[in-house]
Amino acid sequence: MDSMRAAFITFLHVAILSSLACAKGNNRTSPRPPAIVVFGDSIVDPGNNNAILTTVKCNFPPYGKDFVHQQATGRFSNGKIPSDLMASVLGIKEYVPAYLGTKLSAQELITGVSFASGGCGFDPLTADLVSAISMEDQLNLFKEYKEKVKAIVGEEKAAEITNNAVYLVATGTDDLANTYFTTPFRRLEFDLPSYINFTVKSASSFVQKLYHLGARKISVVSAPPIGCLPSQRTLAGGIERICNPTYNQAAVAFNSRLSNEMQKLNNTLPRARILYVDLYTPLLDIILHPLKYGFVESKRGCCGSGTFEVTLTCNSLTTLVCEDASKYVFWDSYHPTERAYRILISNVVQRYGAFIN
Ligand SMILES: *[C@@H]1O[C@H](CO)[C@@H](O)[C@H](O)[C@H]1NC(C)=O
Ligand SMILES: *[C@@H]1O[C@H](CO)[C@@H](O)[C@H](O)[C@H]1NC(C)=O
Ligand SMILES: *[C@@H]1O[C@H](CO)[C@@H](O)[C@H](O)[C@H]1NC(C)=O
C-alpha cells in the first residue's frame, strides 16, 4: 500500500515536472532562457570542490548511487541536485556542470555552469573555515567565465546571454548551522539578531554585485529548517533527536530578513527580477509529514546510521547505505535525496513559475 502510494506520488511529480518542462519548451510566452548560472553551497555544487583542497568533498561512493552510471560526480546527493532539476524544468539542459575541474565544451559554457562550492556561505568566514570557494571568489570566477563566453559568441551575444540567463543563488545554511551555532568565532562577536543582519547584508551585497555584472533574473533561495537536518537533530536535538526549535527560529528570522531585502532590491534595481524563493515551508512539511509524500524516513539520512555521516564520513568503506534512497527525505545527515529535491522544485515551479523564466 505504502509503496504503491509512493510510486503514484513519484509518478505525479514526474508528470507535473515533465508537463511543465514541455509547456515551457514548446509554448512559452517568453523565450526560453539561454543559460542558467548558479552560485552557492553544497545544495547546488556539482563538483567544484573536486578541484580544490578542502575536506568538504563527496566524489566517491556511495554519493551518486542513483546518478547516471552510479557516478560520484561531487554532487552532494544520491542523484541530481536542484540546479540540474531547474535547468531541466526551464528546458535548458539536463545537468549544470561544475565550472572547475573539467574541460567544458563551448555549448556547455554558453548554456550555463555552477560556481557553487560545498561549505560556503554569505558570511566569508564560513568558506574560510573549510577552505571552500567564497561567494566573492565565485563572483571572480563568473567574471572569468564571462570572458570565455565572449570569446565564443562575441561581445553582443555574450551580453545578451548574461542579461537573459536565469541566476540561482543558494547558500546561508552553513552560516547558521556551522559558523554560528557550531563554532564559537561569530558568537563571540555577534548576538543572533546581529549575525543575521550581518549575513543578510552580505547576501544583499552579493546580489547587487551580480546585478552590476549584468545579471537580471536572480532567484535567491531561503534557508531550510536547519534544526530538522539529521545532523542538527543529533548535535542539538537531545536524546529524542527532535528538531531544534532555536535553530529553526533562526532560519525563520534569517529568511524573513532575506525576503525583505530581496524585495527591496527588486524594487530599486532597474529591470531586475529578484525573487526570494521559500524552501523552508515545503521542506518542513515534507519532514513533518513524510508519509504524505511517500517517504518512510525523514529523521535520518540514507547513508550509514543517517545521524552524523556526511561527506568524508559517508563513504563505502565505513558505512552501509539504505537500499532505496527514494524512501528517505535525506541522503546523508545534511543533504536531501534527489526525490526530495524533485518535490521541492515542483513546489517552487508551482508557486513561482511565472517569475523564474
Ligand atoms: C501553443 O501555441 C499555439 C500557437 O501559438 C497555440 O495555437 C496553442 O493554443 C498554444 N497551446 C497552449 C497549450 O497554450
Ligand atoms: C537588523 O536590521 C533591521 C533592519 O535594518 C533593524 O531594524 C534591526 O534593528 C537590526 N537588528 C540588529 C540587532 O542589528
Ligand atoms: C520585481 O519587480 C518587477 C518590476 O520591476 C515586478 O514585475 C515583479 O513582480 C517583482 N517581483 C517580485 C517577486 O515582487
UniProtKB/TrEMBL annotation:
PROSITE patterns: PROKAR_LIPOPROTEIN (PS51257)
Record InterPro entries: GDSL, GDSL_lipolytic_enzyme, SGNH_hydro_sf, SGNH_plant_lipase-like
Endpoints of the signal sequence: 1-23
Highest taxon in the source lineage: Eukaryota
Transmembrane listed as a keyword: no
Pfam families with a match to the protein in the record: Lipase_GDSL (PF00657)
A single MF term (Gene Ontology): hydrolase activity, acting on ester bonds
UniProt entry keywords in alphabetical sequence: Signal
CDD domains, alphabetized: SGNH_plant_lipase_like (cd01837)
Record SUPFAM superfamilies: SGNH hydrolase
Family affiliation: Belongs to the 'GDSL' lipolytic enzyme family.
Protein name, as recorded: GDSL esterase/lipase EXL3
Source organism: Vanilla planifolia
Taxonomic lineage of the native organism: Eukaryota, Viridiplantae, Streptophyta, Embryophyta, Tracheophyta
